[in-house]
Design a protein that fits this description.
heterodimer, A: two-stranded antiparallel sheet, flat, B: Rna Polymerase Sigma Factor, Chain: A
Chain lengths: 318, 192
């Protein structure tokens, strides 16, 4: 064995990676090689120095905080898997085999016929009654259709045919009761996906009604996601206000705790904190992991009111 | 009765959020431990942690049990760490000064200057020893750093590290030997 190879064995022995016969060979070599003995000593000192900084246990506070952030991110991930995204993914998958390509081509042809019908047929302002017969109306604002994202599949017209995809959209106007499932479905989609923060804000405000509320689970889940992930603080504030009107449950509690520990706007952290305190007075308790977050806030939050209130919460539990 | 990983994965693939969380909690300490040692700061470590499990969440439906879940998870962890760009610009400025070639033997002059003409006593009293060690480890190339962290701090076997980093055991040994060589150059004024 070459001398260099013994030096590599030295390092591997310090990491506990040598088989017993290799260990024996190295031991024999060390008996007669001063250079390698010195090298071994040097390496031991190096690893001892670095081991002094070896951190063995993960800090529980950091782990708790990481888990809370992850829950928020997973909720956002789940909410963003919307119908349109799934439809696009499914259509894309169809282009994977020749057989499926034939099916898709037929589908495109039928779609083309449908678009032609939309483009060229007279539309008489369809009215759509809701299932329970109230006066929601669907009406097309105009017969014009806007076309965008034209993509060619086959642009070679030498055989007399071309093939392409495009997006066609037509504006729609909808009027009805705010508790109606159709209305809520569109508003919920808008609060999660609209690019314009004003539109997201209006969608939330539209559902914040003086009339008796119907507590829809999907709307609540959407509000939880907005509270935790929307980039606009004004939108988050309105979502927080509306969410507080819903019956208090685990997901609302987690959202409030997330805001307290992560939101950069102190006003929102205070509002969430007050909601948690109000829930506490109604009998909703916090567990040890959640109390750890308040210990962290008591020490780290820049806002003195939040520090004080966190301390108060902890004192009530002690 | 506690479910094994396979059962949890199957349930999670069907959309059971609780099963997915249970799976996460079995391994997330290890993931966070690696992230804390690799990252420049706590925020970056939490970002790494989140990115790992978001990728696991997205990819779990396609997991075909061709390997252990832990092998797949830690492979994602090492990939995320190796490709992560810190939010902290200070850290990035330091990173730009480093060379990421695996056979590099030289460090930037900036990081060496503090030791020139200084005795070990001057170095250790003038600067926190921990800072010196951290700086030395931080200055390794990403793959050397990752290999060193997984071997020395986390205690994984070379065979396991090779699976995580999706490379041969010989390659892992090379990263490890180069890491030790570079750390010796950096730290010899301190421990000699």
């Amino acid at each position: 064995m070459k001398h260099n190879e013994y030096k590599q064995l030295l390092q591997l022995s310090l990491f506990g990676e040598l088989k017993s016969e290799q260990q024996l060979k190295l031991k024999e070599h060390l008996l007669s090689c001063e250079e390698c003995r010195s090298e071994l000593e040097d390496q031991k000192n190096l690893l001892e120095l670095i081991s002094g900084k070896k951190k063995t246990d993960v800090d529980e506070k950091i782990l708790s905080a990481a888990r809370y952030q992850l829950r928020g991110a997973l909720r956002s991930e789940k909410a963003n898997k919307n119908i349109f995204g799934s439809a696009i993914a499914n259509i894309t998958q169809l282009f994977t085999t020749p057989l499926k390509f034939a099916v898709v081509s037929t589908a495109m042809l039928l779609f083309g016929i449908l678009i032609g019908n939309l483009l060229f047929s007279k539309s008489s302002g369809d009215e759509l009654a809701t299932q329970n017969g109230n006066e929601n109306r669907f009406a097309s604002l105009s017969e014009e259709i806007s076309i965008s994202n034209l993509r060619f599949i086959d642009s070679d017209a030498s055989d007399g045919e071309v093939e392409f995809t495009f997006q066609a959209s037509r504006p729609v106007r909808l009027r009805g009761k705010v508790n109606d499932p159709q209305i809520q479905s569109v508003l919920t989609y808008a609060m999660l996906n609209e690019q314009n923060p004003g539109s997201r804000l209006n969608s939330i405000n539209a559902m914040d009604t003086e009339a008796p509320m119907k507590y829809d689970q999907d709307v609540k889940n959407a509000l939880v996601t907005v509270v935790m992930t929307d980039k606009n603080p004004g939108v988050r504030r309105e979502a927080l206000k509306l969410m507080s009107k819903y019956p208090y449950d685990e997901s609302i509690k987690q959202a409030l705790l997330y805001v307290i520990t992560n939101d950069t706007v102190s006003g929102l952290r205070i509002e969430a904190l007050n909601s948690i305190i109000a829930a506490g007075s109604r009998g909703y308790k916090l567990n040890n992991e959640e109390l750890n977050l308040f210990r962290q806030q008591m020490q780290e939050d820049e806002n003195p009111y939040i520090k004080l209130r966190s301390k108060t919460i902890l004192q009530e539990y002690n | 009765m506690q479910l094994n990983d396979t059962d949890l994965i199957i349930q999670a693939q069907k959309g059971d959020q609780n099963a997915f969380e249970e799976l996460v909690y079995r391994y997330d300490r290890n993931v966070l431990s690696i992230a804390m040692k690799y990252a420049a700061n706590e925020d970056d470590a939490k970002d790494l942690y989140q990115e790992v499990f978001i990728r696991v969440y997205r990819g779990l439906k396609r997991f075909r049990f061709q390997s252990e879940f832990s092998t797949w998870l830690f492979r994602i962890t090492t990939n995320v760490c190796l490709t992560y760009k810190s939010r902290n610009k200070e850290h990035l400025r330091v990173s730009i000064n480093k060379s990421y070639e695996d056979d590099e033997n030289e460090f930037t002059a900036k990081e060496e200057l503090v030791y020139e003409g200084s005795s070990p006593e001057e170095i250790t009293t003038g600067t926190d020893l921990g800072e010196i060690v951290n700086t030395a480890v931080e200055s390794l190339s990403p793959k050397q750093k990752m290999t060193f962290i997984l071997k020395h701090y986390e205690g994984y076997k070379i065979r396991e590290i090779a699976e995580m980093m999706n490379c041969k055991e010989g390659t892992v040994k090379k990263y490890l030997f180069d890491a030790i060589k570079n750390l010796r150059k950096k730290l010899s004024p301190v421990y000699a």
